[in-house]
Specification:
Blueprint (H helix, E strand, L loop, with lengths): L18 H11 L24 H15 L11 E5 L1 H10 L7 E5 L6 H15 L4 H19 L4 H18 L11 H13 L1 H8 L3 H4 L6 E6 L7 H14 L5 E6 L26 H16 L1
Helix pairs in contact: 2-3, 4-5, 4-8, 5-6, 6-7
Length: 300
């Protein structure tokens, strides 16, 4: 199991929930062995999380697969990857060039380039939170230009200089009520630039999942919740399907699950603010879909 973004433990523990614990329990009760691990540099894992990108996390997955191949209690010709959110971006990166991966499950995996994904995510969540449309569009314009500075250049020195200059412009443009309270212009600029200069962020903004998906030849299950505002199903599932078909993948199952959010909880709106307040950790319907599909692949 491959976790989503941010440092997470083997349970993918967040918002009072442990989705990977629930998934692992359900799969093992159905005869499917599961390997979970803490993200590098977090909990009991060693390494440096802060300097790592999705590509680095992909090498951790490769190490996990290599470990499974050493065990005599594992059907080594039926090793699959199941990734949630960013994990759904990483799984195809590994499967694209590894003969050891026999299937992948994308749980709210991404299909569009990172900058486009984050812009869409921010817009949908802001709207769900009742932000005025005028403010949403202003923020989208501001953030989009910052992302363009990163996506259109590989020169980190130039990128940083351009981001600093742009952040000063943005601060002056923002109405006083929209500026972070008690923050000076220099503090605002430093904070914004540091976030955007993060190696993980820059990699994500530039990365187009299609480049890996087109090379994936093993069976793929891609599922999203209908109410997912972080990885919107309409744009991402269609992009995943298109990329897989372009690569002539003959075993593709795409499914949008009604009423579920990004964590695959039954929800009202899909707003991330709801996650912690929902008692359910992972929808039984989603668990059933995943398990039945994996069992079918294992029998082939």
């Amino acid at each position: 199991l491959i976790t989503g973004s941010g440092p997470e433990n083997r349970d993918e523990e967040l918002m009072g929930h442990k989705p990977f614990l629930v998934i692992a329990d359900y799969l093992t009760r159905n005869g499917i062995a599961v390997l979970r691990y803490d993200d590098r540099g977090f909990a009991k894992s060693t390494g440096d999380f802060k300097s790592a990108t999705s590509a680095d996390f992909a090498t951790d997955v490769e190490s996990a697969v290599a470990y499974l191949k050493t065990r005599n209690d594992i059907q080594t010709d039926k090793i699959g990857l199941a990734g949630h959110s960013e994990g759904g971006l990483i799984a195809p990166m590994v499967a694209a060039h590894s003969k050891d991966v026999s299937f992948i499950v994308l749980l709210a995996g991404t299909g569009i380039r990172g900058d486009k994904l984050l812009l869409l995510q921010q817009e949908l969540i802001a709207r769900a939170m009742g932000t005025k449309e005028k403010v949403i569009q202003r923020n989208k314009r501001i953030i989009s230009k910052a992302y363009d500075i990163i996506v259109q250049s590989a020169d980190s020195i130039k990128i940083k200089a351009d981001l600093i200059a742009y952040a000063h412009e943005v601060y002056k443009e923002l109405p006083k009520e929209s500026r972070p309270a008690g923050t000076t212009e220099e503090e605002f600029v430093t904070t914004q630039v540091a976030e955007l200069m993060n190696p993980w962020m820059q990699y994500l903004l530039r990365y187009d999942p299609a480049q890996s998906l087109e090379k994936v030849s093993c069976p793929v299950l891609a599922i999203n919740g209908e109410k997912d505002l972080q990885v919107p199903p309409r744009e991402n599932l269609s992009a995943i399907k298109e990329a897989l078909m372009k690569g002539v993948n003959k075993n593709i199952t795409i499914q949008e699950l009604p009423g579920l959010n990004h964590l695959f909880q039954e929800c009202k709106t899909g707003n991330p603010a709801e996650y912690a307040g929902i008692e359910q950790t992972f929808s039984p319907t989603a668990l059933d879909v995943i398990t039945k599909w994996i069992i079918t692949q294992a029998k082939k």
